[in-house]
Amino acid sequence: MPKRRINWLEFYITFGVVGYVAWISDTVVGGMLDLVDLGDPKITGLGEFASYSFIPSSLSVIYLNYAKKTNKWTLVLLFTLVSTLIEWIMIQIGYLKIKNGGFFIFSIIAYLGVFGVILPLHIKVIKKNLLYNK
Fold it and tell me: How far, in Å, are 47, 83, 125, 127 from residue 53 at the CA level?
């Protein structure tokens, strides 16, 4: 992927932070609250590892690499759609099991918040601190 809006350091920071938050979210939503199961609920497999380690982080850095003020909301909707589609496919093939039917709607709201607010704020903080430390 060509660098457009973020540099390598911003890429690595974002990939790590989003991956960490995804694992924390899995622990809370899947483990502590027991709202979803990914794969076999008794063991952590390779699919679960990939689902939480690479999908959210990859989507986040791709989004930030292309997002700018002129296309922000178009990309927010596109990446929300892609994220929702990935989740829907995982549900359809039986890999993701949601224990609360309304949780899927919550996911869409969460994706809108992540791509519309959290990731832009995240990259703004990183860019400000990287410039400050130069």
Answer: 10, 14, 22, 23
